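User: Is it possible to get a 3D structure for a protein together with its bound compound? The compound here is zinc ion. I've pasted both below.
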Amino acid sequence: MRRTEKIGCLLLAGCLILTGCGSNASPAEMAGTGVAAVTESENGIDSLTPANDFYGYINAAEIMDMDLKDNQQIISTFGLISEETSEQVEGIIRDIVDSGEEYELGSNEQMIRELYNLTYQAVEDKSVFEESDTEFVESIINRIESVENKEDLVNMWHDLAKDYGLQTFISGSATSNIFDTSENVIFFSLSPLADFSEIKESDIKAVSYRDGFDTYLNLAGVSIDDAKERANNIIYLYYDLAGSADPAILSGDKEYFEMFNIYTREECEEHLLNLTYEELLYSIGYDGELPDKVAIPDPGLLWEIDSLVTDDHIREWKDIALISFLDNQSSLLPGEYTQTGIDGFTPDEMAVTVVTKYMDAMISDIYADIYFSDEDKEIITRMCNDMVDEYRVLINNADWLSDDGKDYLTEKLDNMTFFIGCGEKREVNPEEGRLFKDTLLQTLYSFTAYTQQKIFDTLFEENTYNGFDYMSPITVNACYVSDANSIVITAAIINERLFDPDADYAWNLGAIGSILGHEISHAFDSDGVLFDAYGNYSPDAMPESDIEAFIEKQEIAIEYYSSFTVLGSHVDGKLTLGENFADISGLQCVLAIAGDLDSQKIVFESYAHVWSSLTSDTYAKGLLETDPHSPDCVRVNAVVACFDEYYEIYDVKEGDPMYVEPDRRVRRW
Ligand SMILES: [Zn+2]
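Assistant: Yes, that's possible. Here is the predicted structure of the complex:
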């Protein structure tokens, strides 16, 4: 099942987000370790050594050959892999479109080709669809306009959600219950077309929303004067709602798990004045068996919305639905209903973009068939097993952890699941093949409605988690999913720049292995330990004394990283804390697996090369303030300098620029 609600926060919390650091100045500045003098000397990059700048020593020659084009801000290993993956995906789509073969209804190829052709047609000559789509749009506007009272309103909300996947104000989806991940619950959210915090704080913003709304109402056929007045009334309604909203949620300060408030049916019924519990669920398109509980991120706001679902406010709710509909696929609507066209794209470019977005599962299957082999999977699986074994040793050897703390973390490790490359292949599904309608617009609504209902259908099913619903096999990334206690490593990131089945195992450990080790470490960081071995949110499960001991370690890491500078600015040791520990932890793990110094040398070098990148100065400075990862050069130099093996292998001594005193070297374990 798909659990889109959560992707946002988990991506931020647990992923290797693809960034870089450095500058197009000298390599020494790129290295950011304050050894600018080295490259300003006569020897240039030849003077870079493992002892004065390990990052530069490994990467400078390559970086000097990189060239940022036009508005390009960064060239990095991950960016290059992404470009390659996009080309491969485009190739797959074009091969299918051009093949001339007959494909079975509901097969990957049939669906890809049909969607490509529909999109191509829509961009090349939208007028072909004009008549059918005009009828379609009118029917929806009429459906909304037919509403006269609260009961009609609930039915209209339901029909739009059920038939077109359009949840025009209150929205919701089935997702795993973070307190008991074996089951699913409906998690409510809102799609209000406006940011309540902006409306609350700024009259100018409120006016600009109002002006946007009246434009849409005018497109729906409302006279300009009426549209203005009606848009104003929506804003008044939003003022009320904004006043009831939780400020911490509005400002984005609450994590997903802090918003997971479970309410039983009885509790909901106590708060709901106008809608019944059944109507609340029905309004988001759900009409199955009534669940005995739901999850509500901002209960105060939901009760306030309910209090305003009265006959007095029917006009506002109808107008919100109209605006929401006209806003949703605005570029595909017939000319009289939209101000946006599909400009700036060729039919082929747009067709590839739309197919990539909507046919992810189908493309992923074909991609994995071509680019991800059983042999790759076997080697990576072995590596994951080695890492689990090694983390077990690291945890058990951590003298700062209590026995209970060790048991808790070891249980997490033993139950961790790994999603490697790609999932089970999709089967030919004629039902999905029949989702196509006469026009692109209607087809996209048909897909959305189908997907939404499929998710609702899982509500009472046992929660079978699939990591690739979180992160597609064609995304160049890896992540730890805390509420599933799972690692996802996609087929696309298992690329020759990071993984070579014919290379020395140590080389792979330093590259893809260090990324895996980084992600596994997120299971044990300050957010990760809030979730138990089964992904259940259990904030008190880790012994308090262990959390305090970990906080002490954090202080050392913050101080250490803050001493690094890039382009004259200090790294923010607090902002990057979690990711820094993950980097150090990941490398510590793979170094231990590699074993001897010769293999560890290979690990250090392939690890350093993962982070080879060139970034524009402006971009690099911006990242320093916002990116929870350290700059690439620091991800190498700060990390390797924490390991005794590095000093031994490269004969680095006190007085060398890379030298860090033993008591300042950060270790997670
Ligand atoms: Zn991370």
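The domain at 4-14+25-80+373-423+466-664 is CATH 3.40.390.10 (Collagenase (Catalytic Domain)). The chain is about 55% helix and 10% strand.
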